[in-house]
Amino acid sequence: MGKEEKHQASPGPHATKSQTGPAAAEKAASPAQERKGGREEKEDSYTCCGCRFPLLVALLQLLLGVAITAVAIIMATISPSLLARETPHWAGIIVCLVSVLGFVLYCITYLPDEKTSMQFIAKLLYFLLCSLGLVLSVLALAFAGHHYTQINGFTCQETGADCLCTLDPEDPIARTFLYAGVSDCSSITSTLKLYFLLQMALNLAQALVCLVGAFIMWKHRYQVFLVDQQRGSPSAQQWQKV
Q: Which of 51, 72, 139, 201 yields a CA-CA distance of 20 to 30 A from 207?
């Protein structure tokens, strides 16, 4: 009887395999589930965590574009003889268009991989317009700074309904600037000078915002793609196995 009880109590080899089989299958399936869960979390991070295009960038572009355009129009009303490069409404209008496209990107789901051709065109157009806005803002900043330094050395006098300014009144061949429709030269040496300084600050801020917008678009379009390619490469998989 003792031998029979001992024989019944000892588990056979088949029983051991049946008990360890499901546990081993669960352990083998867990890495695949973890990779799947990580992939889902990664996709959710692009669509949820700042899930759409950054609204702050588009708002700043709109506000700065409107401000630059308004200041440029006010400067043109002071003297109609100001050149287009000295009243950079063109830089503000372009960035306003960029901000509208940014709002469009905000209204759609922001994904690193383009699912439709329309979404790809919108992202590419936004990147190009941001780059164009950056270049135009730097140009407007340079023109405003150049004219601001010239106004600091102006000597102006009224000539009828106009204001005539020279850089060096003692030099007979010095360059002169005629501001038509300006009866008071103080509006050139003080008011217009202040507007040029304001244009420099606004265009500098606008250039930085356009740079941030272009960088965000480049990062989510190319950097994520390159990282995924590196993770899927055979060398990266070998390092993970090691």
A: 51
